[in-house]
Amino acid sequence: MAASADIAVNLTSSSVGIISVIVFVIAYAFVMAEEVTHLRKSKPVILSAGIIWALIAFHFMGDKEMAHMVEASVRHGILEYAELFLFLLVAMTYINSMDNREVFNALRSWLTIKGFTYKQLFVITGVIAFFLSPIIDNLTTALVLCAVLLAVGKDNNKFISIGCINIVVAANAGGAFSPFGDITTLMVWQKGILNFFDFFAIFIPSVVNYVVPAFIMYFFVENGTPKSSGETIVMRRGAKRIIFLFFLTIVTAVSFHNFLTLPPMLGMMVGFGYLSIFSYYLQMTHGKSKTDSIEKFDVLKKVSKAEWDTLLFFFGVILSVGGLGFIGYLSMINNFMYVELGATWANILVGILSAILDNIPVMFAVLTMNPPMEESQWLLVTLTTGVGGSMLSIGSAAGVALMGQARGKYTFLGHLKWTPVIALGYVASIYTHILINF
Prior knowledge:
- By secondary structure, the chain is an all-alpha fold.
- The chain has a domain at 81-304.
- It is built from 22 helices and no strands.
- Helix 7 packs antiparallel against helix 8, helix 16 (329-341) packs across helix 18 and helix 18 (359-369) runs antiparallel to helix 19.
- The longest helix is centred in the first third of the chain and has 37 residues, at 64-100.
- Mean pLDDT is 86; it is low at 1-7.
């Protein structure tokens, strides 16, 4: 319904369309200025979503058929958001649970005791992010490794900032060559355009995309070593089992999608069930270990500590961009690009657009238009939408999530300083893909 509306409706030159664009641009300006204004990024985009859809609904008030189409499109957007929301909420709950069990502090203690320098930690977290994201997706990977980075870096904001940028780039690059690494690759795979093993053709370009900026940033990481208290932190009772349940949850989510053709979100919710049952066990056996804290472990308290600003930001973005798509802007942009510019330049620009508008709606627009392209071009647009979002902190789910998790340490402006270097990796990866796969 949303796809047909995007093609059938054209309000781009109307007052509704123009006002909607202005509202969205103003909202995103506040998102980008969060570091200065201290206005949570979710607030302006939630308001933007409501205004845009209210304008559309008001325009079609006298047309029952179009009014139903507007309602169906809003519900479609809410469904897409619900899947992302539940997936992310479970991932955040597991991370908060592992944090409660001292997993990340124990890892920080181990890394500092080992004597790894900031430069070595920069490389270690980046490499892990690149190879972990194809398995558990770039968003979850970024959340896990950022938690480790915050634990290791402590109050060294400069290291945490550049380390988070490195993780975002690595996670997005690693997720680009796997159907499970990013929502956009999953969309292409589900559409049947590329087979499972076709994605691995962009493995080398993905490596280039990560290595080029990481190599340059490496020289700007300080030479020191994180301070160690010398204290060995022991994980609390149940920590290893929660780690196991987390990976079991990821396997469940992948299996639900791969074998049962069910949304991965449902598998994640089953994983939340694993954690809930284990939480009950920890409560019933509380006090049997010296590592037990005074307060009993309660999984619902871990849910309450999720980064709600980030979760609500996704709601605003998905509904706002969905409204602009309904008006006809996404179709107009993609028609112009693929007809006037050609597939290669269009796919390169798609990656740049994904850094501004988020890669999910951009890829949805490309799949809706379904331009006649060869496999190498579909691989190119998969690569660009996967890694293009790394150029801005708001360009990918990983970047947005880390802005919430490392609030005040990893920011939009801090990431923007490294955009030219990340863009260099973007160009290098495209050139590598053209050399290898065209």
